[in-house]
Amino acid sequence: MAVDRRTVLQNAQLFASKGQYEAAIAEWRKLTTDTPADGTIFNSIGDLQLKRNSTPDAVAAFLQAAGAFRSEGSVLKAIAAYKKILKVDPSKIDIYRHLGDLNAERGLLSSAVQDYLTLGKHYFKDGRNKEALEIYRKIMSHDPSNLDAQLRVAELCEQEQLIDEAIRVYLQLGRERSAAQQYEQANAMYAAVLRLNPENAEAKEIITMIESGGSAPSTVARAAKPSAAAAKPGEGSDLMAEATRRIEEGQYAGAEAMLTQLLSREPGNPEICQLLARLHLLQGNLQVALGEYRFLAGAALRAQDYAMAESLINDYLKVEPASVPMLELLGELYQEKGDAATAAQHFGRAVEILLEHPEPGMPTLPAELFEKVQALAPGSAIARKLAPAFDPNASSSTEPGATEPEEVTPEPVAIQLEPEPQPAPVPVIAAPSADMLFRLQDSSATPAAPAPPTAPVMAQVATPPPPVPAPPVAQAAPGEPAPAPVPAVQPVSQVDAETQYALGMAYKDMGLMEEAKEEFVASMKDSGFFVDSCLMLGLCLKEQNRFDQAIQLLEKLIADSRCRGGNAQLVRYELAMLYEKTGARDRALAMYQSIPTFHDVPRRVEALRILGTNGVAHPELPVSSQNSPLPLAGH
Known about the structure:
The chain is an all-alpha fold and 635 residues long. It has 3 domains: 5-217, Serine Threonine Protein Phosphatase 5, Tetratricopeptide repeat; 235-398, Tetratricopeptide repeat domain (Serine Threonine Protein Phosphatase 5, Tetratricopeptide repeat, Alpha Horseshoe); 425-441 and 458-614, Tetratricopeptide repeat domain (Serine Threonine Protein Phosphatase 5, Tetratricopeptide repeat, Alpha Horseshoe), CATH 1.25.40.10. The protein has helices at residues 5-17, 21-30, 39-51, 55-71, 75-88, 95-105, 109-125, 129-142, 147-159, 163-179, 183-196, 201-210, 215-221, 235-248, 252-265, 270-283, 286-302, 306-319, 324-337, 340-356, 365-376, 381-390, 497-509, 513-523, 530-543, 547-559, 565-581, 585-593, 601-614; strands at residues 413-416, 458-461. It has a two-stranded antiparallel ribbon. Helix 24 runs antiparallel to helix 25. The longest helix is centred in the first third of the chain and has 17 residues, at 55-71. The chain is flat and about 100 Å long. The model is unreliable at 213-235, 396-494 and 616-635 (pLDDT under 50).
């Protein structure tokens, strides 16, 4: 006989409201007869176990919930369930493995690596070396450029007497450090190799070169124009000349073999690396060549050899003129040289290409580069040309020399949390700072000191500063033969706003309001999710009984030009209910009357009018949005 789900739920809620949590749990368990793989049931049981202060039982229930969600493909809810376990019992460190696996499945490799790193550190600290080694190997498979993980693998292999693997990883690290001109670190890696195998020829040769008086490292450190003294007479010079000749004649295979042989003797030699990069470019292997040219040009740029850096960049752009990474690097070069106008032109060209052909996984890159254009040349033609793509109110027809409107410059826009006597509409609400929109700490925390009477409390919502370019990742010398070749560096995965918003919704549904708010604040940075994210943030504050902050947020949201259509109606509806909740009957009535036909507004308006007539409080009206928000427009 099937269980009457509605009756069971009503009984469970009744028992829970009376504090009879065991009886409520018993009711919930009845539902597992018909739906044994329903994660929502186990999540509710876990919440009730927490209320009766039974943490182990709660953890067990959340584990069942996570497994059920994972089986049905609800990855975000599974992540939320695992997060609840860590929040309840931080000692359950194995949960980080599940989180890492789930993030890896979603393609969020940077998040996965962070989860694995946390787990690996715990294992290493607890002396669980074999498990730590497994995790750090997994990190290397997802992020080959993570040198810290590589070093930890080498150390753990040495401790576990896996000598061959330890030597292989130490050699790999030594080559990467040499290629990055980090000779002290390279020396330490090769010394570790000799400690394990005193007869290793490569380690002996490189250490001898590094310790031979410093002439070789100082020569290699220069990114270009090696002196005549640096060239080795005999076979090395002959091989270089022969490789160059073969490249010019299109005999690429033979040339690559010669350059590879040279690199095995002189790891990191910039002249050989440049020639190999040119070879890959001529072969049409653009992805490999891009990594090599970026590394070499970046090294020259750091050494302030601007001529060599520009030469390398232009060599690549001649073959691939629409390369955004190289245009961005060229912009950085001119920025360092102090030529702001030319730098802005190159950044602007990169923005144009991205607008026409968006880069997957990097939705915010055009805006970030446009901010650089604005900062370098706010009144330039390229800035005026691109402005309408980022601000619909901007015009590309501004006369040369005209002053740029204030709202287009990357100045922070402050949102007031306290009502002003004469509030003005906020035309643009930019992405929130790292402090988050309303300093979303737990309301039970010690309150901050009040602001002076003359200065209302402010929540800073600022346009993020232009990103600082990350230094080029150290890579092993291109084409070098090795027992285990260094994998190509994978781009760091970025979390898009849609994913952040969806994760926030999952957290909210699972009762993790703080985590949900963090995700919504992140997804607010995308204009397409700004309104929805603000609304969900307000509902989270409402769930936490922080009604004043929720009201202030939604009032500001209504003033924003992006809040229109169906979303605007929903925001007004939620704001009216908040007014009603806090006793502001007149404000609630006025807000409801602005959306007279929306949802159950006629019934609510009638109830408020009856209340105003006889002064008798009406029964609490059902609030559909408290547990299941109305669908948002466009989602």
